[in-house]
Each structure stands twice: as structure tokens, then as C-alpha cells.
Fold this sequence. Notes:
The protein is mainly alpha-helical. The protein has one domain. Helices cover 68% and strands 0% of the residues. The chain is elongated, with a radius of gyration of 14 Å.
Amino acid sequence: MLGFMLNEKEVQEVEYMLKREMEELLLDLSDPRIDGVVKSAMEDKYQIVFNIYKRFVPPKETMKYILNRNRRNTQ
């Protein structure tokens, strides 16, 4: 396990980068042209990024980014 200290501005920047990555992955997961194997790998990556994001924000803010497998099939 690694640890590091960030100031408030750096925390905000990390949150922003994580949100952007999750939003991009969610958008790609909703694309029917992407193969299932690739989507599976993208879901794994999403879970990793989401778990990091959860460490930076209050639980209420994570609700927006919980991966709903049905959601990606309907968008």
C-alpha cells in the first residue's frame, strides 16, 4: 500500500480527473459498436477508478457514479 498527502487544490484536481475518466468510460460502455470483451475490460477499469474516487468524496457523491449494468445497455 502506498500513501501520499495532497493539498485541497490537488484533491480537487484528482476528483475532477477521476470524474472525467468515469464519465468517458460510461459513455463508451453505452456504445453498441464496442465488443463485449472490450466492455468487460472497461468495466474492470471503471471499478478501479470508482474505488479510488470513493476515497476522495463523501458517500452521497458516489451515488451518481455507481455502475448500473442495465444503464449502459439502455443509453
